[in-house]
Amino acid sequence: MPDEIRPRQPIPKNPDVASFMRRFGESAACVAHLREVRWGANLERFICPDCGHDRGWWLPTRGQVECRDCHHQTSPTAGTVFHGARVPLWKWYWAMYQEAYSKKGIAAMALAKQIHVCYQTAWTMLQKLREAMHQRCQRYLLQGLVEIDETYVGGKEPGRPGRGVEKKVPVAVAIELNKDGRPRRIALRGLKRADARSLTDFTTDHVAKGSCLRTDGWGGYASVAKAGYEHEVVVTGGGKKAVETLPWVHTFIGNLKRMILGTYHSVSPKHLDRYLAAFVYRANRRWMEAKLFDRLVVAAVSAKPLTFKDLTAGAK
Ligand SMILES: [Zn+2]
Predict the structure, then answer these.
(1) Which CATH class is domain 145-270?
(2) pLDDT the model gives residue 57
(3) CA atoms of 209 and 265, how far apart (whole Å)
(4) What is the per-residue pLDDT for 312?
(5) Could you tell me which of 305, 205, 226 has the C-alpha nearest to residue 215?
């Protein structure tokens, strides 16, 4: 049974200060990097937000692009998650560095101490980055053979295994397997309750129609499969443990629980989906570790920005 997901390249255990400093030690380096991620090396993707003109020049001393037509100046942070932030860009870059390269992400308290901001600021920054990852994770569907199961996370007291646990939050898990039966991509979602209806919604949102769902023998999955899927039931019981029938599901669930316990101790149900998104984001990009950071910057730049009010209002 696989006990851990092993990436082809080792992920650095702790993103080190030295490598960060070499790349982004000065704010100007962060601004230049962000400009390039957003608009290309020669500003070929630049569009003036004021007049729509597509040519501009870079003003290095101001760290802004000036439109050649109307002379409006635009900062690379405008309209992104970094927009209007009083937090200097290098602090955002450090937070992204930690989120991209730490196996388990970083907790707000630790980040606050590292970059000298208050807890609420660090928390908000991380939520915004995870929201960007969350939006990124909505852009594709799993397909082919997909294992589906559910688990429970959070809560302080040790939960009884299986369905019917009250205090913890149910989480739906889907894992796309390749031809060799190894995991490719995963999807997760916190559920209000682990019933057939919620699992059907989760499945139709994350798994392409016509795929084959592999599940345990719980009756609810038969109705999930009726939403347009083939269905392969792996019979549990007869002395076989669930962990042997859907080993990859249990591997990922184990890793997820270790992340939540190790880094966050507990997660409120309201923000659970963003924590899950950070886990999914790293898991689905574990083969492209070298590009993880740049891709996170792209996600941050492309995401619909949220305010602190958005983040704290209502359940996600
Ligand atoms: Zn313009």
Answers:
(1) alpha beta
(2) 94
(3) 36
(4) 72
(5) 226
> How far does residue 42's CA lie from ligand 1's centre (Å)?
17
Measure 56 CA to ligand 1 centroid, in angstroms.
8
Q: Give the lowest-confidence range in 97-111, 128-142, 180-194, 240-254.
A: 240-254
Tens of pLDDT, residue by residue over 125-147, are 998 999 888 888 888 899 999 99
Summarised one tens digit per residue, pLDDT across range 222-280 is: 999 999 999 999 876 655 555 567 888 888 888 888 877 776 666 777 778 888 888 88
Please give the distance, rounded to the nearest whole angstrom, from the Cα atom of residue 47 to the centre of ligand 1.
8
- For ligand 1, a single-atom ion, the residues with CB < 5 A are 48, 50-51, 53, 67, 69-70, 72
For CATH 3.30.420.10, the residue range(s) in the chain are 145-270
User: Which residues neighbour 314 within 8 Å (Cβ) at sequence distance 6 or greater?
Assistant: none
The H or E element that residue 224 is part of is helix 220-225
- Cα of 131 vs centre of ligand 1, distance in Å, is 30
HEC profile of 271-312: HHHHHHHHHHHHHHCCCCHHHHHHHHHHHHHHCCCCCHHHHH
- Number of Cα atoms under 13 Å in the Cβ half of residue 213: 30
Distance 61 CA to ligand 1 centre (A): 20
Q: How far is the CA of 234 from the centre of ligand 1 (A)?
A: 60
Kindly give the distance from the C-alpha atom of residue 66 to the centroid of ligand 1, in angstroms, as a whole number. Answer: 8
Ligand 1 centroid, distance to 50 Cα (angstroms): 5
Within 8 A by CB and 6+ apart from 60, the residues are 28
**What is the pLDDT at residue 167?**
63
Residue 75 alpha carbon to ligand 1 centre in Å = 13
